[in-house]
């Protein structure tokens, strides 16, 4: 378990230091900004959605290691997925970080955030990018706060 935990921490550190898809998407057709006042995390999620599929996704922002790593891994997880699959991933991820995940979750690398469930104050850091993604998908352009 502690070996797993170390590996998980390594993945989170790696993504927080060199986040993937960390850029402004020039041809985005959806965009939302999210803010977590509890920790000061800010994230902007850019999406290119075409015929119900997330063709491309990127983010910009500044925040703690968990919020940055979560946004980075989220972009990898949802790229190429359709909207229903994206919704399922968000649901599964939310259950994971709030400690409700059942057996056999199909979350892949997102499992590295399992430990967050032990730190309730960190849940908002881990879910900020996901809430922002959802706002962008629902409203096209939005600003959200976790408070
Ligand atoms: Zn944070």
Short characterization:
The chain has helices at 2-17, 65-78, 83-97, 120-139; strands spanning 30-36, 41-50, 53-62, 141-145. The chain is an alpha+beta fold.
Structure report:
By secondary structure, the chain is α+β, with helices and mostly antiparallel strands. The protein is about 45% helix and about 20% strand. It has 4 helices and 4 strands. The protein has helices at about 1-15, 65-80, 85-95, 120-140; strands spanning about 30-35, 40-50, 55-60, 140-145. It has a 4-stranded mixed β-sheet with strand order 3-2-1-4, covered by helices on one side. Helix 1 (about 1-15) crosses helix 2 (about 65-80), helix 2 (about 65-80) packs across helix 4 and helix 3 packs antiparallel against helix 4 (about 120-140). The chain is globular and about 40 Å long. The chain starts with a helix and ends with a strand. The mean pLDDT is about 90. The protein binds zinc ion (ZN). Zinc ion binds near residues 36, 63, 67 and 125.
